[in-house]
Amino acid sequence: MIGIFDSGIGGLTVVKALMEHLSGYDIIYFGDTARTPYGTKSSETVKKYALENTEFLLSKGAKIIVIACNTASSVATESVVENFDIPIFEVITPAVELSINTSHKLCIGIIGTRATVKSGIYEKKIKEMNTQSRIYSKACPLLVPLVEEGWLKKPETKMIVKKYLHPLKVRQIDTLILGCTHYPLLKNIIQKKIGKKVNVIDSSIAVASNVKAFLEKHQEVDALLSKKGRCSFFVSDVTEQFKKTATSMLRRDIHLEHVKI
Amino acid sequence: MIGIFDSGIGGLTVVKALMEHLSGYDIIYFGDTARTPYGTKSSETVKKYALENTEFLLSKGAKIIVIACNTASSVATESVVENFDIPIFEVITPAVELSINTSHKLCIGIIGTRATVKSGIYEKKIKEMNTQSRIYSKACPLLVPLVEEGWLKKPETKMIVKKYLHPLKVRQIDTLILGCTHYPLLKNIIQKKIGKKVNVIDSSIAVASNVKAFLEKHQEVDALLSKKGRCSFFVSDVTEQFKKTATSMLRRDIHLEHVKI
Q1: Quick one: which of A40, A15, A1, A59 has its CA closest to A242?
Q2: Residue B186 belongs to domain spanning
Q3: Which phi and psi angles does A107 have, rounded to 5°?
Q4: Which of A21, A29, A80 is nearest to A206 (CA)?
Q5: Both A212 and A187 in a single domain?
Q6: 20 to 30 A from B249, CA-CA: which of A39, A105, A135, A259?
């Protein structure tokens, strides 16, 4: 199975993208809702959580792991790769590659949680691929709670998005990376506030096509993955809010299983 | 020592009130910042956390416990009382008593996290004390992230507070209970939006005077408490944000100790 974890509901955007790109592949999802959010926590704590989550998914039969959380991808990928000998995907590199390949002016904006922005991982990866790039990033800690509250179209959300994007807009970026898996749920507002001409990069789509390309190249790994169209959802805390959001996002009935971690 | 715990920084409003009411008493604070927030989590999970936090404070020498978190007070007080044989204080009863004693019309509003409001604990306690009361409650899940982001005076915060308070304002409440220890930090905005005539009850002040009254009556417990004016702060995750907010709230230098829980 393809194992995916996130701090909460954000990673479901990656599940959705994987379902579209790799239709029929079995997926096992773990949302660490008892310890969510990760974005405001220290990197040491997030590393510990990421290792525990990976271990849980492996125990359930995952053969590849997608870290569907930008905070964990930023600070914990290295630890996960060091500790587990299977293919590990994270959401940052695919988004960076896509942005470099599609940006004309190489003037790139990044929005994410405080932890992701503070890690500087996007700047580092973009600079490694293209030293000419100009990069501007902005932490947007209120967007995750707004999404989790379901305020996707409220005027307050629009105002807050506008305020957060203002410093990127004045820099006239031509590409904006959504550096948090929650943000695709606000993509319409973000696109409107940053301007129609800016290419908004959705990391959930980027990582899904990355996994697909990998499996096409590595048939031996692909052969390990079951393809019965099943999708299991585990969470460390069962809340109504999660079920409601997941059902409306994936447009299917969701059965949540509680797991103590 | 007086042991206090909260899911994060909110309980510091209780520390501040205790320092004013019981000047010189030694205080040990635990902020469960690695697992914050509690307000969006299930009661089973919050109970588990509350028991672990209490155990930690006892191991550090606490002789009485103040649960300085409304969510934990709502759903976990009973479990904590059952499991530990020392005086346990929570933030709900003192606020309820104060509101009943000072309300003229007995038309009382309550704001809190989703978990607190869903628990119905305030309604239950108010009705027990006075069956004539009319009670209206409103969950305000975005206020905690706004406080933790430090957006205490931003126009977006004012708009969101106004939106949340609107249904209580149309009911013409005369008393409003701040059912979350984060909310005293927004007291000025809340007072302005709900109207000058409404009596806003700050549970951190209510619980501090409650503890004081208890210790005056129970000298044998008071004798167990050291009074050297020391205050120790433990957190399950060390973040800059916590240190910054704590320093500005308590107006003193804070040394944070990390504890794994």
Answers
A1: A15
A2: 92-203
A3: -115, 100
A4: A21
A5: no
A6: A39
DSSP-assigned letters across all residues of B175-198: EEEEESTTGGGGHHHHHHHH-TTS
Residue B78 has pLDDT above 90, yes or no: yes
| pLDDT per residue as tens digits for the range B122-161 | 999 999 999 999 999 999 999 988 988 889 999 999 999 9
A34 at the B interface (CB within 8 A)?
yes
Q: Measured at the alpha carbon of residue A155, what is the angle toward residues A153 and A161, in degrees to the nearest 5?
A: 80
For residue A151, CA distances in Å to A154, A189, B73 come to: 5, 12, 28
Q: Are residues B145 and B212 in the same domain?
A: no
- Is residue B175 located within the same domain as residue B210? no
Chain B interface test: which of A7, A36, A40 (most B C-beta within 10 Å): A40
Side chain identity, residue B11: G
Domain-ending residue, one of B203, B221, B241: B203
- Nearest-Cα distance to chain B for A111, in Å, is 16
Using the predicted structure, report yes or no on whether residue A200 has a pLDDT greater than 90.
yes
Tens of pLDDT, residue by residue over A59-85, are 999 999 999 999 999 999 999 999 999
Tell me: pLDDT of B241 over 80. no
B44 vs A238: CA distance, rounded Å: 10
Residues of A in contact with B149 (CB under 8 A): 141-142
Q: What is the pTM of this model?
A: 0.82
Strand (E) or helix (H) holding B221:
helix B219-222
